[in-house]
TrEMBL record, chain A:
Residue span, Guanylate cyclase domain: 49-190, 286-407
Family matches, as InterPro entries: A/G_cyclase (IPR001054), Nucleotide_cyclase (IPR029787)
Species the sequence originates in: Pseudomonas rhodesiae
Entry-linked SUPFAM superfamilies: Nucleotide cyclase
Protein name listed in UniProt: Adenylate and Guanylate cyclase catalytic domain-containing protein
Gene Ontology annotations of biological process type: cyclic nucleotide biosynthetic process; intracellular signal transduction
A molecular function GO annotation: adenylate cyclase activity
UniProtKB/TrEMBL annotation, chain B:
Listed InterPro entries: E2-Crich (IPR046892), E2-ntca (IPR046891)
Pfam families named in the record: E2-Crich (PF20272), E2-ntca (PF20298)
Domain Cysteine-rich: 99-227
Name listed for the protein in its UniProt record: Uncharacterized protein
Protein species of origin: Pseudomonas rhodesiae
Domain Prokaryotic E2: 2-94
Amino acid sequence: MSKNWNHNRALEHINKKLKDVESVTIKDYVRDMSLVSIPTNVAYRVDGVHLYADIQNLSDMLNITAVEGTDCHKRTLRFLDQHYRAVKRILDRVDGRRVDFHSQRLHALFTKPYNSETDAEKKRVQRAVATAQLIVDVLAETGDDDQQIPAAKVRIGIDSGLALAVNNGRNGYREPLFLGDPANHAAKLASNNTTRGIYLTNAARAAVDLKEVDAPEKSPLSKDEVKVCQDAAKLDVTAENIVEEWREDLKENPIGNFQFSRQTPPLCDMDIMALTPANSKRQDMVSLYADIDGFTAYVADNIEDNAQDVVRTLHVLRAEMERVVTSDFEGRRVRFIGDCIQALTCEGTAQNTDEEKSVSESTRLAGALRSSFNLSIDRLKEFGYESGKLGLAIGFDLGPVSVTRLGRHADRIRCAIGRKVIESENRQCACKGDETAIGQAAYDAGSEAVKKLFGTRKKVANLDYVEATEALADDGDESAKNARVAAYAGSPAIIKSDERVVEPYMTGGLEEVGLR
Amino acid sequence: MKLPVQLVDGRTIPYVLELRDLDSIVSVREEISEHLPPFCPERHINSDGTFCLNYSPVHSLTIEDEATARAWMETVYKFLKLQERAKGLRKWPNDKAWAHGNAARHQMRVQAAVKVLGKNLANAQSSRLLTVRRRYSKGRAILELLQNGECLYRVWEATKKVANHSRKCICGISGRRRPKALRKCLDHAAQAVELVLALYEWDLEEKRYWDIMQNKICCGTCDNCPLA
């Protein structure tokens, strides 16, 4: 049976979520406050340094074999696992906080020393830079020649400033999420270019008395500048220590052999928290990214005076997006990455993925996400909450995806990898706030109706649920036709009218041009 | 007439319509412009608010009996569902619509020509991928048929002849390993000329239509509307 999105069902859920955040409290983050399990209607203003480290050769690992089989996935997962462990060990030793590890991207935070100390910001940036160099040095050593695992090539971005910490979590995922310029600017610096090195925003440069530069993304710190920070930070750990401890740890807690099995669709039944290397999932599926466009600017505009509405907007939008993915379309949310949801869907059986149906249903899921997004924004406005000028950019693609959890026991991080996971994110990044894009593989596997809908640009604007379902159904897509017939069950006259081809005309000008 | 239109997402749009019968041709519009703009050429709503449901030389919607009444009703229902899609998309949702004003006559000619010239051209035309460019060659006006920017063939405007008759035919339906030359392939040379001229005149008529409409007020519901 095809999945469906219903306006009233969405409205009811959005209203419920609005009620959760009727009253929102914003607190300043101070010494010894916990950032774990922040209540839904509370946010902390956190003055800290954000560090993003991008492992640049993840794609090389995924493309190491011509065919995207289990070998390249196993090697990539092992590569990530080794590096996750090494980075976790570093952060534990330098009093940094790992916020998330999303495939090739690490986000860490430095809140210490607190602002009660003199030159606190300067010291935090120095600590972050010293840690960044430690990460670079350690990851250069943590390859494994025996297992054909190369050392990681890393680019690091650092920014400092005020961010808003909110609950990132849904269902047992209680890590904080940081909203605002510093997290975003650091992420952009890390992923901006191909050149390796440590890059600071001008705000972070000013904190450590470095000159402002015109293009921070093209101005890596020099060895001397890093050395100054290292000397000041006095980290009581060296790359050699970490690598040694890491090798010991690997001996005591070896990375398990990766073993894959299929997850019987629907993917909402996949218990990610139960996954381990020996119990990983792998099959052809659709990877989808939906990112709230304009959110960084919106947070920047409102973080000082109207942070409550930022919390409300984010809570409502993310809860509703999750409901659409999980409940309406029986997919699986992998994680929220800031204002972006990463999701997986699959149609078929325990043995096979029905590729055409998976693409059709994902197209309609993308439409449903946009419908829910639009409805949420309408409701927020009706309640008088400031929601800025936000949009939703969606990208998806189809291909082999492995899902597992990496890292040490009791500290595992969920991970979904595959060439098309990266491609789906790239497709999403190429979209404006009203666009939905499809990857080449999904396009090729899609029905003729899907191909027609996305056209040669493989991108379509304003695709909501009604449009996705009606356009696909009108052009003969079986999944959409089933969904439409189900929506009008008990109304045969409407079903009959849907079969009619309407070719309207426009006579309005005829009188004026004298043709009548 | 009250007509609640149910959408596929469960919403219902409560339309109240005004119907007028003139010799079995029933015109219809919203009683009060509430859900639709009062006038929008892109959404096929005439300046008096009536819906332009069909192009009568091709498809009649005259009501003569129960079956034709049913067909009319189903058309109106589907038309109103398409309107909701147009509202969301900010453009007409599909390519199944006739060109404006007198341009529809040339669209009809185009459709007849591509039907003869094979499936590939017919598909390209229905997806609106065919365009005509007018330029000068050796001091004479020449019309080029383009698909995605690539020239398929050229027609001399004055003589109404394909510029290179001995080129292979564009139909791809001769069934031979080597396609026939255009001039030897049935009446395809004449149809190729007809296609280019009809597309060119369609374009001119569309421009003429919008020139005449330029003083009308745009409803603002469609992007890329020439009135905007």
